[in-house]
Amino acid sequence: MAQVPATIFRQYDIRGTVVGDNPQVTPDVGRLVGKGYATFVKRTFQTERVYIGSDNRLTSPPLKNAVIEGMLSAGMDVTDIGEVMTPTVYFASAQHGPRGGGIQITGSHLTLEYNGIKMAYGPLALYGDQIQYIYNCIVNDDFEQGAGKLGHDPDMVRKHMETIASKVKMGPRKLKVVLDAGNSLSGMYMAPVYEKLGVEVICLYCEPDGTFPNHLPNPEDPTTTDDLEKLVVESGADFGIAFDGDADRCGIIDNHGHHIAADRLLAVLAQDMLTRRPGATVVFDVKVSQMLPEVIRQAGGVPLMWRTGHSVMKAKMAEVKSPLGGEVSGHIFIGEDYYGFDDAPLVSLKVLEIFSKRNESVSEAFEALPHLVATPEIILPTPDDIKFRVISELQDYFRAQTEVVDIDGARAIFDNGWGLVRASNTQPAITLRFEARDAAQLVDYMQRFNSKLAEYPQIDRARLEQQIRNFSA
User: Which of 5, 2, 16, 4 is nearest to 426 (CA)?
Assistant: First the structure.
């Protein structure tokens, strides 16, 4: 029986350390994952070809080569599409049709000691039991056998870029943007696309460098966007765009240097989409602001709240035939005349298209949306062996007092806002978020949760108590 660490087989991907004394994701593990993935998709989806790419981390090439070896040994035909963004792998898999597959070697926004493997079939991503099936194939030495053929298609990224560029029609307003690629691949690929559409581009850290010497590419971490925010204001740009390490998420910085929350970005995208698709359903996760469903209804759409996680969001959108979805983490999915996966390059183009047709500034457009007082996501370290029991007990506790949305944790609905607690799928933690009409109400909601969580001494509540102090000041 092969010895692989079970903990790297996570809810949405495979991820772990690749350096140090006891690395978790080694080429040997990659080879086994390749065999297990090929076995799973052949048996389940009759997949006939898998497209594989990687980010520009220094640890990615040996891992990619090992995964390729594993897939070939399981009889899977493989096309290597080179160093590309994750959406390019998703695009390759989706454009092949239902019998296409995709694997991306990427650590995304994580620090350099990590790397990982994201897996797709058609336009969707593997998650949950599908990933556990691969793990079970490995531990039981249960693989398909064969001799797959290896091909190369370095032109796939051009096909992807041309396809997404064809999905937008720019208006008369000439835009200036700052693009912060964080030394990932997005700068090299996206700057020419923007320029071809008539956009003036100021590049920041657009040169690929797998050591990420300036900052980790993670637009949802405010400490990584300081330089971008300053340059947007100094240059008089209309807005800034920052991509994460594998470009399945992007962040928008307005003309005043302020970060636009992903659910507010989704609201503007929904307003635009619903002018063409009135009555359409927009899917979003349980962590979004109450502002979002209100905006969707006002724009003539149908809001649908669903579980957090890019893989489950894509699956739900496919089920209900939704043309747009997104989550607070920054994953946004466009299904209007497209495949519905998290393609941040296309999202950025949609934002450019929208503001090329408007006279108002980016800050003015987002200021016009309803404003509520909200906390950031609050992550509390919680042992894995109790976190789901805690969530179940909190569901019962709040259900006795008020309405509770329980599709993913417990979102307790109060008179003027809500509080959410859910179990993290990726780490030993629970996550919370709160929203209200004013700070006093917000503090009240946090204290209600905190008093109940105090019954569990294993939970480190320091970050929640810090937020209570912040909003009480």
Answer: 16
Number of domains comprising the chain: 4
> What is the sign, positive or negative, of the torsion defined by CA atoms of 173, 179, 184, 189?
positive
Reading the block at residue 353, the tokens are 């298209």
- Average pLDDT (140-160) is 98
CB environment 303-337: b (16+ within 10 A), e (fewer): bbbbbbbbbbbbbbbbeeebbbbbbbbbbbbbbbe
CA–CA dist 453, 460 (Å, integer): 9
Mean pLDDT of 176-190: 98
Does the predicted model carry a pTM greater than 0.85? yes
Please tell me whether residues 461 and 321 are part of one structural domain.
no
**Which two structure tokens, joined as six digits, stand for 283?**
């899917």
pLDDT of 244 over the 80 cut = yes
Sequence-distant (≥ 6) Cβ neighbours of residue 38 within 8 angstroms:
47, 50, 70, 71, 74, 75, 76, 143, 144, 148
Backbone angles phi, psi at 383, to 5 degrees: -55, 140
Residue 137, both tokens: 């194939």
The model's pLDDT over 301-339, given as tens digits with 9 standing for 90+, comes to 999 999 988 889 999 999 999 999 999 989 999 999 999
Nearest to 294 by CA among 350, 369, 232: 369
By mean pLDDT, which of 82-91, 336-345, 387-396, 419-428 is the weakest? Answer: 419-428
| pLDDT at residue number 356 | 98
- 331: domain CATH number is 3.40.120.10
Domain that holds residue 398: 373-472
Q: Kindly state whether residues 77 and 126 are assigned to the same domain.
A: yes
Strand pairing class (200-204; 176-180): parallel
CA distances, 274 to each of 76, 237, 277 (Å): 41, 28, 5
Average pLDDT, stretch 173-191? Answer: 98
Q: What are the residue numbers of the active site?
A: 108
Amino acid letter, 48: E
